[in-house]
Amino acid sequence: MGLFDRLKGKLGSVFIEGEKVGDEFYDGLEESLILSDTGAVLAGEIVEELRKRCKKEGIRLQQDAKATLRTQLTELLESAGNRGMVLATKPSVVLMIGVNGAGKTTSVGKLAAKLAGEGKKVLLCAADTFRAAAADQLEIWANRAGVGIVRQQEGADPASVLFDAVNAARARDVDAVLCDTAGRLQNKQNLMNELNKISRVLDRELPGSSRETLLALDATTGQNGLAQVREFAASAGLTGIVLTKLDGTAKGGIVLAVARVTGVPVKWVGTGEQIGDFAPFDPKAFIEAII
Hints:
This protein is an alpha/beta fold and 291 residues long. It has 2 domains: 5-78, SRP54, nucleotide-binding domain (Four Helix Bundle (Hemerythrin (Met), subunit A)); 92-290, P-loop containing nucleotide triphosphate hydrolases (Rossmann fold, 3-Layer(aba) Sandwich), CATH 3.40.50. The protein is built from 10 helices and 8 strands. The protein has helices at residues 23-35, 40-57, 62-78, 104-117, 134-145, 158-172, 189-205, 224-236, 254-262, 283-290, and strands spanning 92-97, 122-127, 148-150, 176-181, 211-218, 240-244, 266-270, 278-280. The mean pLDDT is 90.
């Protein structure tokens, strides 16, 4: 199966070969966008923009409008910023953050395997010291990916674990430190403060180093995910999103909403439990799948 096979045809079924565009067509498209988790406001904006483009380009048939919509939505996704990983320094740091159950630890393990497969030396940091067996779970992923791990006992100071990991990375000539953090709700101030403490350790120990702060976002949460992105972007300075559990939904409009409303790019997508079920996000392939 292709990465986005589960999403195929969700919007494409609106377009009927040989039929003309008109109010009924646009209303149907708007409804399909809303049902795909795009959100009512953005769905209206997308349809209105398509109307304008079709009028300007003299498009009358729905199959031709389909190609225009593909272009329009690809442009929307590509406007969200740099989808590449900036890991220019040695070591670079990737912080994986998000709410409980979003798939942070799994995503760290999968990303470690990807980077190791590119020839990078990777070290995992088990900074989720609150959840029972979190470090054990991360160690399993470290073994699967064939990379090292730094951990302490349950309940240890997460910033202290990261401090140890940074020193180990320097000593071992590591390219990238991937840091798994405790699940936090965006409105839990003490956990947000912990995240700030982690950032301060990095500022002090690795000034000027490349840093990616990725939000693990569960694709099945739909529009509720937007609030998470907004809050974490405001408090943690997100550089990108890892969209997890895309295999658990046949929708996917949340990707459009995140790009449009927050401007934070989706950099990776997770589509299953296996270590290889993880890939860079490709806007064009995504749009081709849903339309």
